[in-house]
Amino acid sequence: MTHRIDTFQYRLAHPGYSVFPGAHPGQLAGSGQLFKRHEPLLAVPDPRRIDLRASLLDPFNRYRVRVFQQYSKLSVYVIADLSASMAYSDKQGKLKVFADFVLSTAQSALQMGDGFGFIGCGQNLEHRWLLPAGSSLVQVQKLTSQFETLPIYTNADSLLQLAPYLPSRRSLLFLVSDCHFSLARLRQILQPLTSHAVVPLVFWDEREYTSLPNWGLVKFKDRENKELRTLFIRPALKQRIIQAFEKRRKLLQHTFRSYGMEAMFLSGAYSPEMLTHYFQQHNL
Question: Do the beta carbons of residue 121 and residue 158 sit within 8 Å?
Answer without folding.
Answer: yes
